[in-house]
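re: ur msg from earlier - yeah i can do the pyridoxal-5'-phosphate complex, just paste it... oh wait u already did. ok heres what im feeding in:
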Amino acid sequence: MSFEISALFRPKLPAPASARFKAFPTYNFVGGHNDAASIPVEALTAAAARVIAREGKSLATYGLNSGPQGYRPLREFIASWMAESADTHDSADEILITSGSLQALDLVNQLLVGPDDMVIAEEATYGGALTRLAKLGVPYLGVRLDDDGIDMSHLAELLESQKNAGQPVKFIYTIPTVQNPTGGVMPVKRRRHLLDLAARYNCLIFEDDCYADLVWSGIRPPTIRALDAEAAVAEGRSNRVIYCGSFSKSVAPALRIGFIMADWPVLAQILPLKTDAGTGALDQMVLAEFCKDQFPDHIARLRARLKSKCDMTIQALEEHFGTAAEFTAPLGGIFIWVTLPEGVDTKRLEVAALKEGIAINPGAEWTVDGSNNRRRMRLCFGNPEESEIRGGIARLAEICHREFGVPERISNIEQS
Ligand SMILES: Cc1ncc(COP(=O)(O)O)c(C=O)c1O
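and the outut:
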């Protein structure tokens, strides 16, 4: 009898991976990849040597003598950095190290929601958050955004109509500081307004903040979690914000180090859900050793480099797409959210561009209402080299012109 292994897989699995990895496309404007030249290779090498020589024997234990919340010196660094940079005063005990902030998303979803719940996400948001909710069968609604983030009157409408429909909202998922994909930063006043609405409708806020260290000005607003701290203490309740951060964008995505900041009742219930026996120990040790003296200088350099790539991308868009590409210059981060003229379908553009080695994120995958966002695309400028940015955008304009007739005219294409 022939043996068909896939016949034994359980039903309702996601679609299998379409192909094995071969190589990144030549012009890689997708994903959250970082700037290769900014990886602090020498400093990480030295940090690894130091910390392993000093503490390597603790690798003999699960959890590095720090318990299931993660390597204590790393949690202490995060606590001190959040206090210094974001006026957020949680201690190392309110931090759980996760395997990237993607694991934080999984854990928070597991803690809070199932198919009977309702979540509100920003109308344009991180595609990985939407696919996770969809996989769990959790319904979600999109709240309108403007340059300052969530439109509070629309949020109030949604919260009210959900309440009236007998399906109140469990949590609002927001990326307030360098929003993905718009690149905007929510001002403090709006953060407070968001907290007021969450309090009125008794829901939670899930604050996903992995780009916050990449605000060009180097000055980030206090976290929404910090803004709720005083009232939480005064009212003798838990903070209604669960916060997650990551070192993927500020140091390196391959490290897979993120974190959750939340009150103990939340962490105590998340810990049994984190069944991986701890996030990679060496990654945590090396990162903590590196960060304790070098993080501020490192991110200042990284920000300057990303800002210059951002400027270059904007220049290339203006040169090659002209007025056909509309966007608001991001306030930090690694991407630009572009709207193309009516009639352009960025899903089709993606397919055509990939054949020529250019990868883009089509807008439909980065929005709650995908079908109404087909003419948008997200371009990540973090990883491509300068010549690839210029060459890639020029070619993309040429392909878009060929497929959709926009931009109407093509400037002298720089082939590189
Ligand atoms: C908003 C947001 N959250 C979470 C993640 C996941 O990042 P990581 O798991 O690498 O920390 C990303 C990655 O791009 C993101 O953009």
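cool cool. The chain has a mean pLDDT of 96. ping me if u need the other ligands too
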